[in-house]
Design brief:
With 130 residues, this protein is α/β, with parallel strands linked by helices. The chain has a single domain, classed as Rossmann fold, CATH 3.40.50. The chain is 41% helix and 20% strand. A five-stranded parallel beta sheet has the order 2-1-3-4-5. Helix 2 runs parallel beside helix 3. It is globular and about 35 Å long.
Length: 130
């Protein structure tokens, strides 16, 4: 499985990558510090299914392009991708407005509160592979 982490927090990136590797379900992890870098990568690789992720773990609050802006761009881009990509919003926000807003996007599978535990990652990744 190929995973994409879009989050500007270096410590969180490190910890999530470590947890993902320990699941033994992930072949490759791409990390982007903002949504624009991820969109650019997807555009460059839209014809290469092997370079596109199976799942995205997306933070909300980031510089340049935040999670909401990413989702708006991804909504338009997804029709040009040759692969179904599952998106999970991962945030430290407990704000009901953020959780409700995430449900407005058909592209978002679920909203996960940080920190993400290995058992949660395993459940999410196994659900995607089924």
């Amino acid at each position: 499985m190929k995973v994409c982490v879009i989050d500007d927090d270096d410590i969180y990136q490190f910890l999530l990558k470590k947890e993902l590797k320990h699941t033994n379900l992930v072949d490759r992890i791409n990390v982007f510090t903002d949504g624009q870098k991820a969109i650019d990568y997807f555009l460059e690789n839209r014809h290469s299914e092997s370079h596109l992720p199976d799942v995205i773990f997306l933070d909300i609050n980031m510089p340049i392009m935040n999670g909401w802006q990413f989702l708006d761009e991804f909504k338009m881009l997804k029709q040009r991708l040759n692969k179904k990509i599952t998106i999970y919003l991962v945030s430290s926000s407990f704000d009901d407005r953020d959780i409700s807003r995430s449900k407005e996007y058909a592209e978002v599978t679920d909203y996960i509160i940080k920190p993400v535990k290995r058992s949660n990652l395993i459940s999410v990744l196994e659900e995607i592979t089924e």
